[in-house]
Amino acid sequence: METLQTYLPDVFFLILGMLLFLYMVTDGYNLGLGIFSLTARREEDRGVMIHSIASTWHASQTWLVILGGVLFGTFPVVYGVAMSALYIPVMLMLAGLAFRGVAIEFYDESPNRGRWGLAFGLGSLVATIAQGFILGGLLSGMPVVNGLFAGGYTDWLNPFSALVAAGGAAGFVLLGTTYLAMKTEGPLRERAIQAAVMAAWIVLVGLSLILLWMSLQHYEGRYSLLSLRQGHYIYFTLPIFLFEFAMLLRSLKKTEQDKPFQWSVLLFLTLVVGLAAALYPTAVPPSLTIFDAAAPVRSLWFLFIVSAVLLPVMLAYNAWQYLVFRGKVTEGNQPDKAQN
User: Fold this and answer.
1) Are 156 and 131 in contact (CB under 8 A)?
2) Is residue 332, in this structure, part of any structural domain at all?
């Protein structure tokens, strides 16, 4: 028990990484689909996109709530610093998510679907860009003095964060379009595959520019992710990423049903693992570690027990939900559960 108690901060670092991955994948394709819907040529196509996620988007968004709750309970200093430094993009993200959710619910009930369809797309775009600035702002580094944020309220607004936001938006569009290709047939599926190929290349270019930016910053003696003790570990995942990228393009070229989405998910898993390996044990770059920011042991034990009970139930529920609503989506209809 004492050994486990010693490693509780490490355990929750892993749990937070898992929750981040689950949110990025499950709500990522919803947001990416929303962004892609802005290019819809017909309102019927936008309706198919909304119907393809109408039964699952609630559960996907739950992972963000759990992520915030676990972060607050296990590393309250990190939560306080992050909210102080990133208050504006966090509020923009929440506004975008709320706008997106209202649009999905009202879409079928309104006589003017076009406006709600546009709200669905714009809300998804705002939430995605805001999330990119949140991640970019964190990776840019935050000055912390005595457990409090000591920087400015617009520190997150910088060119590096903008690059991360653009790359993240392309990544979500990749998830969304490969998901749409899995759920539809006909011309809409063909457009989704074409968009997925374009998004995949943008993701690769964006990741290359981000790594180049960090390398140049580190070479010039400035702070970057590579300045951390294990920052260079992010390079170790690049061969895996490039292999998955090649397999993704191969599956898109063959217009396979499920594999493009599966390879897209694996790309995100590789990126999250590489980022976690580079950050550990840093909680807020460049200097605040998970050991400095951890909550009291009793709080960690309580949350560990709750997580051990709650997370398997949530995973089982999400898996069952996706199983029930599997199948293709056609115009004006919900997913056909009789199809695989």
Assistant:
1) no
2) no
Both structure tokens of 315: 């995973």
Longest dimension (CA), the chain: 62
β-pairing, 282-284 vs 288-289, is: antiparallel
Cis peptide before 9 (omega within 30 of 0): no
Where in 95-240 does DSSP place strands (E)? 144-145, 148-149
Q: Could you give the CA distance from residue 323 to residue 196 in angstroms, rounded to a whole number?
A: 24
What is the span of the domain harbouring residue 111?
A: 11-324
CB contact set of 179 (below 8 Å; sequence gap of 6+)? 29, 32, 33, 52, 261
Instruction: Give tens-digit pLDDT for 222-261.
Output: 888 988 889 899 999 999 999 999 999 999 998 888 899 9
Whether the CB-CB separation of 31 and 124 falls below 8 Å is answered with yes
CA distance 142 to 145: 10
What does pTM read for this prediction?
A: 0.92
Among residues 155, 61, 63, 134, the alpha carbon closest in space to that of 104 is found at 61
Torsion sign, CA atoms 17, 284, 167, 134: positive
pLDDT at 122 over 80: yes
Give the CATH number for residue 223.
Answer: 1.20.1630
Cβ atoms of 45 and 111 closer than 8 Å: no
Name the nearest CA neighbour of 31 among 146, 152, 131, 133.
131
pLDDT band (50, 70, 90) for residue 332: low
Cis-peptide, bond into residue 286, ω within 30° of zero:
yes
